[in-house]
Amino acid sequence: MGFKSYFKRFLSKGKENAKETKKIKAEEIGDWIKNKKSSIREREKGAIEQLKGEIERFGGEVDDRIEVLKKVSVGGNRAPDKVKMVVKKNLDKYVSNLEKFIGGLAEIDERDIERFISKIDESFSKFDKNSRMNYEKATILVGKEMESVKKSLIGFSKSIRDMAKSNDGLIKEVKGLRQLKKILEEVKETRDAVKGILGDISDYENRKTELNKEIEGLEREVEGKKKGESYKGWVASKDEKENLRKMIDKNVEGLNKLIDFKMLAKYWHGNKEEMEIVKLYWAGFESAFQKDRGSVLRTLVRSLENGKQLEGLLSEVIELEKKLEKFEIGESPIREIEKEIGRKKEEVKQIASEVDKKRKILRKLEVNKGSVLSGLKEELNGFDVAIDDNQDSDWKEVEK
User: pLDDT (tens digit, 9 = 90+) per residue, 118-130?
Assistant: First the structure.
């Protein structure tokens, strides 16, 4: 077991007499911690020097005990040689672990008293774990000398826990200040994070305003171009081409209704190649027409009673198709501007999405800030110190 098992009860908070609570401004917390830490530093140094002194005293005492153990001989004992061998082996291991324990204590270098005591406890626990079995086996034949070491260990343990008890208040103050420093760092991190996010949001909003102005300018430019002759001419050509397309579609639809596919199939059923064309048109006239522009169909419909009429309509449609293919209207005079408007509007949407993400993070930080500030108040309360709640601006110093 470690020393904590001996002095743990001395580290717990006991009942204290009620003290008057001191109120400070939030902006003064950092300075208050520095001043408080400075005021207890000498006390802490003194307590650590006492601990080091006890370690030095204990080390010297145990060194004497170790010299005695090294001179112990089990050769003259009447025990079986095998037992003597086991005892000697474990005695040597115990001495080795004891020397490491003493050496480790002497090397402890902590300026924090709680951590200093914790290191002693860790060293003691490690020694106890590594040497317990050696101690038990060595005491089979070596009793008085081992008991002397045990008394020294118990005495050292009592001295350390007595020192821990006498410095209980100091230890609590050191722990409290350490926790306060950690909380203030969290406050700073939260404040910096909020500041950074608000800066990002501001940049996004400025960019959004800039984009909206650019979009408005481009839209005005579009409206201006729409009034110009170039755009009007382009629209007229576009409408003309569209009307030509509609005329072709209408004629193709009319042809589909005029052709008697049953009669056409009956006439061409003996010709495999021609019959395949008939089936293709019968299954989907418009799609089939788009594939060969009716060039083969024009020959096939001559076999029908209204063949000349159909052939004439087909020729007309074919000519219209040729005209449509050659019809060039060019690119819209406002196409590039509209594409630019689209890109900028998309960027505005992305900005809105990013701002929404940033605001969600801010809400989480707001919740965390409340928890951090609550912890700050609680730790300060342990020093009989409270934040002056009437000083709203003071809280802003911590929160902003």
Answer: 999 999 999 999 9
